[in-house]
Amino acid sequence: MPDVTKTKTDTAVDAVAPPTEVATAPAAGPAPKEKSRSLWGDAWYDLRHRPMFWIAAVLLVLLLAIAAFPGLFTSADPRDGDLTNHFLSKPQLTHFFQADWFGYDVQGRSIYARVVYGTRASILVGVGTTVVVTLVGGTLGMLAGYFGGWIDSIISRITDIFFGLPFLLGTMVVLNAFTERKVYVVIGALAFLGWTTITRVMRSSVITAKQADYVVAARALGAGTRRILLRHVLPNALAPTIVVATIALGAYISAEATLSYLGLGLADPTVSWGVDISSAKDAIRDNPHVMLFPAGMLSLTVFAFIMLGDAVRDALDPKLR
Residue 276 is part of a domain; what is its CATH number? Predict the structure, then answer.
């Protein structure tokens, strides 16, 4: 029998509100977690958004290409001198990538060719010195910071002794002991007194890193000293060292030019910017272009490495972001 107890109000509601199906919303799951980045991944992400980094990177890639393949940028011989061109040809800025683009020096040699080929020696000195200094200073700083005790005392006192020696004057004394000053000799002389800063920076970083929880846990689990140093301490203490080394690279290139200018660095027949600046010092009044171009390339290179070091420092130091 039909339900007769239904009231008039219920009938009105049914007429106004048609029957609908109750849709059950799917249960919202946990939001997808953003993939966490490591220190180096986060630094690379930050570097990619810095115009200063890309400007420095483009300049350095170009300089490295010139140093590696100078024959692609000029066909002139940097040592081929013609006295008939003795300061007679001024820079011909319309003759791009030709031998007389920058003019000729006091011996009639192409300044453009010497600037191009001089890139190799200057870059080699800067990169070679930085590699040696980072390896020696980083190793000593890591040992001093991790082991402490008498090892730290001995390394720290030796570092203080070398740190007290004037860098440029000490390098001049070392180079004066050699009759033939090749690129590797200049690298050795610069590295002989340049490792102290890297040692101090690495020592401080290792002292901080070895107190971290992951190092304590690795030591408690029985990990060996070598594994702890290479797998846990070094990767987390390397960032400040890389920053200092990148900035110092430009300083080593400038130091080589200074030593060559003083007659104690590289010398002919080696082609470098410092050698060209030294040979042009007597003609700077009447022919400033002879010194302008090698000095300009030197300044541009040092500027590029300093910009790169600043960008890397800002990317690796969270406090500066």
Answer: 1.10.3720.10
In a domain, 25, yes or no: no
Distance (Å, whole) CA 194 – CA 175: 14
* 80 found inside a domain: yes
The parent domain of residue 236 ranges over 58-320
Do the domain assignments include residue 95?
yes
Rg (CA), the chain: 32
Confidence band for 301, pLDDT divided at 50, 70 and 90: very high
149 φ/ψ sector (left φ>0, alpha ψ -120 to 50, else beta): left
Which tokens go with 10?
């219920």
- Other C-beta atoms lying within 10 Å of the C-beta of residue 198: 25
* Alpha carbons 165 and 245: distance in angstroms, whole number: 20
Q: Are 309 and 241 in contact (CB under 8 A)?
A: no
User: What total number of domains does the chain contain?
Assistant: 1
Tens digits of per-residue pLDDT, 149-187?
899 999 999 999 998 889 989 999 999 888 888 899 999
- pLDDT by residue (tens digit) across 206-228? 998 888 888 888 888 887 888 88
DSSP state of 281: G
**pLDDT given at position 84:** 62
Task: Report residue 198 as tokens.
Answer: 């890297």
Per the document, the length of the chain is: 321
- Asked whether residue 49 is assigned to any structural domain, the reply reads no
Query: Which whole number is the average pLDDT over 77-84?
Result: 74
